[in-house]
Amino acid sequence: MNLLVHNPNPYSLSTSAMTYELFVRDTVALARGADTLHRTVGGHDSLLVALPLDVSLRGLVLAANSVVGFGMVPYRLVGDITADTPIGSRRIPFDQKGEFAPVKIR
Fold first, then answer.
1. What is the pLDDT of residues 12-48, one digit of tens each?
2. Are 48 and 41 in contact (CB under 8 A)?
3. The pLDDT value given to residue 95
4. Of residues 90 and 62, which shows the higher confidence score?
5. Longest dimension (CA), the chain
6. Do residues 69 and 54 make contact, with C-beta atoms less than 8 angstroms apart?
7. Are 41 and 47 in contact (CB under 8 A)?
């Protein structure tokens, strides 16, 4: 899963941690994760971050059952980023939505 991190500030920001949870159809928890890699996003710039996910079998079964019969599957990624700012560490929440096509097994 990828997350686009955008820095609207004129100065660079560094991240020291991220936590997140992935839902399908807004309510079915599929996976969660944490990332402690330090990254820097330049001022008025963006960075695409690949997020490691811990997928639960229960979440996978519930997600599969919730998407049967749908063409595109809506997802929601929520969490927070710990940013090291010029005035100290700050937790910044995010909530990103999108859709993906389910993988068809033949």
1. 889 889 999 988 877 888 888 998 888 999 999 999 9
2. no
3. 93
4. 90
5. 54
6. no
7. yes
Tokens of 92: 């910044």
Give the number of residues written for the chain. Answer: 106
The residues, any chain, with a CB within 8 Å of residue 16's CB and separated by 6 or more, are 36, 38, 82, 83, 84, 89
Nearest to 13 by CA among 59, 45, 52, 54: 45
Q: Are 65 and 12 in contact (CB under 8 A)?
A: no
**Helix H or strand E encompassing 20:** strand 13-24
Compute the distance between CA of residue 93 and CA of residue 50 in angstroms, rounded to an integer.
Answer: 17
- Interior angle at CA 55, CA 49 and CA 58, nearest 5: 155
Closest by CA position to 56, among listed 19, 98, 22 = 22
For 57, the enclosing helix (H) or strand (E) is helix 57-67
